[in-house]
Write a structure and sequence with these properties.
Strand content of chain B: over 45%
Order of helices and strands of chain B: HEHEEEEEEEEEEE
Number of helices of chain B: 2
Largest sheet of chain B: 8 strands, antiparallel, barrel
Helix content of chain B: 10-25%
Largest sheet of chain A: 8 strands, antiparallel, barrel
Low-confidence stretches of chain B: none
Mean pLDDT of chain A: 90
Number of strands of chain B: 12
Helix content of chain A: under 10%
Distance between the termini of chain B: 42 Å
Oligomer: heterodimer
Shape of chain B: elongated
Strand content of chain A: over 45%
Low-confidence stretches of chain A: none
Strand order of the largest sheet of chain B: 1-3-4-6-7-8-9-12
Largest interface: A-B, 33 and 36 residues
Chain lengths: ~250, ~230
Amino acid sequence: MYYKLRKILFMAAIALAPIAVYASPFNQAISFYAGYIPSLGDNLYSYEQQNTFGSTNGVDGINRSFSGFNTSHIHRLIGATAGINVKIVMYDFFALRIGANYFKNVWGGKGKTVYDDGGTTRLLECTYRYDGFDIPVTFGIVIPFYKDMKITFSCGIAYAWGRYRNKFESDAPLLYRGEFKGHDYPLVLNVEGEYFMDEKVAIATSLSYYRGTTTVIKDSKQGDGNTDYAPLDFTGYRFLLGISYYFKPI
Amino acid sequence: MKTVHHTIIITIALLLFIFIAHEHAFAIGEFSIGLNAGLTHDPNHLEPAITQWNTQSKTTASDVDQISIPYSFVWGINVRYQFNYFLFRIGAHFTSPYSVRGEADSTRVKISTYQFGLPATVGLIMPLKQRAYFFLGAGLTYNYAYLEIKQTNPDSKVRYADSIPGFHYIMGAEAPLTSKITLSVEWMHQEGRSIPIKDEVSGTDKRTISVKGDFLLFGVNYYIGM
């Protein structure tokens, strides 16, 4: 842990080194963001949902109702995310952004449905959870807009690690639990707008779009007697609000 | 043969557009030509089929080397004409992933695919400072998609190829390097799905190809006639 921390501090020192030269064509900014992710994990497909519960498209197809059963709608996940970004602005117009974000589901992914258990309709309680982190690296263009605004448009790639967990429980009795952990390198697009309150501090909004899916991952949850398979999907939009601090006046 | 015809027609159309646009570009506004290179994920939207194959293999075979959903380099050119706040852009891009393979016990699968796109865009451009722009646009796309899936044990081969109409939207930014040369970053999202295409090998099976996808493009642009 100590070694990792030293490595991170060393990398940060390299990234921030150009500010030592006041007249250099580089400027650096650090931003803190928080926001939300609609459809976190996309449809949360897994093999057992298709094989046992008849849903070929995960949470989208699992919702059913039947007379005499008290079901409740299972929504796609909405996630919350928070993170930090370091931006190096070069020659006023070009920017390199490196970030670190944590995300976790905060709403949806829980409810009751029914499934066909060999001719018998049964109530099924479903729970989906998803969390992880990512490190996006993007390169793009900074456009000064009037005197007190900047728009940054950048594209790149991220290292994304995710963990998807699901649980299906019925009175059959039946209990399926799945946990899938893995990483991928999704493509990343970022549009960021900053409004400067003074020469160094800005309020920022950001829209990010990630696109990437892992191969199929084997369930690592032991003890329920079943082995499930699922990909991790990082595709989706992120809407963020934050604050930026520039090390040199703009 | 069909592919060669398409390529010739598209190349001629593009050259004509460049020639005509250039001839008339001096009257008003600005004309530019650009080279693009970038990255896309999952060209021809093979993800559902690949995930299905991977899942089936993992649940039935003992030794599986899964098919990865491919990333692919994109190459292209674009010509643009802009005046005041309006932008007209026509582009051409090509993408083909290097290697898409999988293995499940003694069964091997190889997917060969490529996509050619010809997006025509109308948009709004915000000239901000010097030659710095931010632009948003949308338009129609002509796509040509090719997909071949070969499998061993049991041996099989299917091949689908056809033209696919679609649409796209694009967002980008541009900044000056010199008074005539700029660097750009663009994101293009495109949608489109073919009608069921007949397998060229068997002549009977049919499937659709989706060209839904995202392109991240970095470009160098040269302005003419200023």
